[in-house]
Write a structure and sequence with these properties.
alpha/beta; six-stranded mixed beta sheet; disordered N terminus; 14-stranded mixed beta sheet; about 725 residues; disordered C terminus
């Protein structure tokens, strides 16, 4: 049975309309043209040897899922999608940071960590008022910190550590009322720490070790209500003393001022109720050790390499969490109380290291018997002449403690790479593909990780919302800082819906990575801040990149449904309906064709046909601050074209729109007007029910002055 020609034609038309509506819907969910052009400028400023950004040359950033570009799922009031995150972690990118980053005005996370970027930090980043995470650590950036960064009202974290940033800390940073984390260590930042920063109500971590800071330590920092970590090692506060007010920091967990050229006495820090880590080593501190006992939470006390005198007080006894006490290389004398180690009850994972080398210590009070897991060093003290103490006076040995995992007894080579046995799985020979994560604790509050290993596994697995057996720590290494680097393995859950799960699904990979890159894993008092070094996507996860999940528009199932529904509807249409529709389409097509022909016929030298997107980019989406005039015809905006040309854009309001013919006629007329005192017409825009005239911008006088009034008087001469 054959369908009539009219019915066939009608079917084709309905299908056409279905696909057209689908196309319109997909086109509606597009990225703001201002941000598209900004991303292209950002791409031009980068070198991408690993070709991670190759798809930035095609499609729409949000609907085509450009690598590293994450967008909001819904459009804003302007009808566009906007960039939410730029996640370009560890992509081997070089080049510079483009000032066009400032055009991504809705962005919350900017992440360029662990690349090879050079140049300066653009001040335009200060325009992104929505920015919450600024992550630029691990590059080769130079120059000073822009004052403009101090006016980011929503910034939670600034990480610029491990670059070559120089110059002072801007005083404008005192305006960062929501910022909790200042991670700016390992740079060349100089000058005094602005005391104005003591006004920051939410500052939690202040890490500026390994810089060139000088001047006085700000006593006002004791007023910071939420400060947990103050880490300023390896700066030069020449002649400065440690303010006595530091003893009033009620929430402080870690104070690290190693090698800072500090002088004077050690202040009384016993009033800090939860102080867990104290490092004042390698300074020129003098006087005696304060006699008041420190917090029971203390794990590490390092007072070595100073000019301390007097005896070792009993305050170091009975500290239940102490892992390391070092008073080596001072001028201490007298008797050492053995209660420091004798009163400790250590389990198999706890260790206590005591360093007393190179002082004037003459004896030990009480028993010299050492409990298991306690190491004491007395080399270079007079007491070492006592033959009964010689076993305590040998040279210090390297720490050989290692982290080991019990390997299950399973068939050899039964797991093809990258699959491997999950050591802690309920099934001891469960073969699965782990996610490999390189991770580092930036300022841990302990000296020996082994005693905190189980606690760390509980903390991180809880933060990741996974079972504890899914997390394995394959390697732990102390690196310069001291910081603790870890290699983690995250295994898929053993059973999903009564079936063994050997891999994570894509959504779970994306969820886990988002927790690391969005810094949504809760902070821990003892483990301190962390940083993600690498999130490896190998084997079955090679295409599970989180930015591939941000596709907008209609799903494949919806497309099929629309097409099938369209076919079913088409078979029920009459030839009469198809002819009516056809006639209407042809009439509209004729009008559209006439419009295109009229525009195409306007070929005037020096007058350009601009797109609506170009006008949005030039005016930052017709921002109110760009408006420089208004009249009965509409508004006038100052804009900057992509080539840097300053222009004045005359935008007609809805009631002033002309017909197509009249508008093009006006353009032809204006293009013929040439005078030394009359601004030139550079182009026009006739898209999306908009009519705009683009003139060269005249800095002296208003556009009205140049288009009319006194300027036109010269035409009579």
């Amino acid at each position: 049975m054959y369908l009539s020609k009219s019915l066939v034609f009608s079917t084709a038309l309905v299908l056409y309309f279905c696909w057209s509506s689908l196309y319109v819907e997909a086109q509606f969910n597009i990225t703001d043209p201002v941000e598209v052009n900004a991303l292209r400028a950002i791409r031009r400023s980068l070198d991408d040897p690993n070709k991670n950004l190759t798809n930035w040359n095609r499609g729409d950033p949000c609907s085509s899922s450009w690598n590293g570009v994450l967008c909001f799922n819904t459009t804003f009031d302007d009808g566009y999608l906007h960039v939410r995150e730029l996640q370009l972690l560890n992509m081997n990118l070089s080049g510079t940071l483009s000032p066009e980053l400032g055009r991504l005005s809705h962005m919350r996370i900017l992440d360029f960590m662990w690349n090879k970027l050079t140049g300066t930090i653009p001040k335009e980043i200060g325009n992104i008022t929505s920015l919450e995470l600024l992550l630029l650590n691990g590059n080769q950036l130079t120059g000073i910190l822009p004052e403009e960064l101090g006016y980011l009202p929503n910034l939670d974290r600034i990480q610029i550590d491990q670059n070559h940033i120089s110059g002072p800390i801007p005083k404008s940073f005192a305006n960062l009322n929501k910022t909790k984390h200042f991670h700016m260590n390992n740079n060349s930042i100089s000058g005094q720490i602005p005391p104005e920063l003591s006004r920051l109500p939410n500052l939690v971590h202040f890490l500026l070790d390994n810089n060139e800071l000088s001047g006085e330590l700000p006593a006002e920092f004791s007023e910071l209500p939420e400060l947990l970590i103050l880490q300023l090692d390896n700066n030069n506060f020449d002649g400065s003393t440690i303010p006595e007010s530091f003893g009033n920091m009620s929430k402080l967990l870690k104070l690290s001022l190693r090698n800072c050229s500090l002088q004077g006495p050690i202040p009384n820090l016993s009033r800090i109720p939860k102080l867990g880590y104290l490092d004042l080593s390698s300074n020129q501190l003098n006087g005696t050790i304060p006699p008041d006992k420190l917090s029971n939470d203390i794990t590490t006390i390092d007072l070595s390499n100073n000019n301390l005198i007097g005896t070792i007080p009993n305050i170091f006894s009975g500290l239940p969490n102490l892992q390391k006490l070092s008073v080596a290389n001072n001028t201490l004398n007298g008797t050492v109380p053995s209660t420091i180690w004798r009163d400790r009850s250590l389990n198999s994972t706890e260790r206590l290291v005591l360093e007393f080398q190179n002082n004037g210590l003459t004896d030990i009070s009480g028993s010299i018997s050492l409990p298991p897991n306690v190491t004491v060093w007395f080399e270079g003290n007079p007491l070492c002449t006592n033959s009964s103490l010689v076993h305590l006076c040998g040279p210090e040995r390297a720490d050989n403690s290692t982290l080991t995992e019990v390997t299950p007894d399973c068939p050899v080579q039964s797991c093809p790479f990258p699959y491997e046995y999950s050591n802690k799985s309920p099934d001891k020979c469960f073969c699965a593909a782990p996610l490999l994560v390189e991770y580092r604790l930036k300022s841990p509050g302990f000296s020996d990780f082994l005693a905190y290993k189980i606690r760390f596994e509980e903390y991180l697995s809880d933060g990741l919302k996974i079972q504890q057996y899914q997390l394995e720590i394959s390697e732990v290494t102390w690196v310069k800082g001291p910081r603790l680097r870890m290699s983690l393995k995250l295994f898929p859950v053993y059973i999903v819906n009564d079936t063994k799960s050997n891999t994570f699904n894509t959504s779970e990979v994306q969820r886990l990575m988002a927790l690391f890159t969005g810094w949504t894993i809760p902070d821990s008092e003892i483990f301190g801040p962390y940083e993600l070094l690498r999130f490896n996507l190998l084997g079955p996860y090679v295409n599970a990149i989180p930015f591939a999940s941000n596709k907008s528009g209609i799903s494949r199932g919806a497309i099929i449904g629309i097409v099938i529904g369209g076919i079913a509807a088409a078979t029920a249409l009459s030839a009469f309906v198809s002819l009516v529709i056809l006639r209407k389409r042809m009439r509209n097509h004729a009008v559209s064709k006439k419009r295109r022909m009229s525009k195409a016929s306007l070929k005037i030298e020096g007058v350009k046909d601009f797109t609506y997107g170009e006008m949005m980019l030039a005016t930052n989406n017709f921002e109110s601050s760009a408006q420089i005039g208004q009249g009965g015809y509409g508004k006038v905006y100052k804009g900057i074209l992509e080539d840097g040309t300053l222009v004045a854009i005359k935008r007609a309001q809805e009631g002033s729109l002309q017909g197509e013919k009249e508008f093009l006629t006006e353009i032809e007329l204006l293009s013929r007007l040439h005078h030394r005192n009359l601004v030139s017409l550079l182009g026009f825009c006739d898209e999306q029910d908009e009519q705009m005239l683009i003139y060269e911008f005249m800095a002296n006088g208003t556009l009205r002055d140049h288009l009319s009034g006194k300027m036109f008087e010269d035409l009579q001469s």
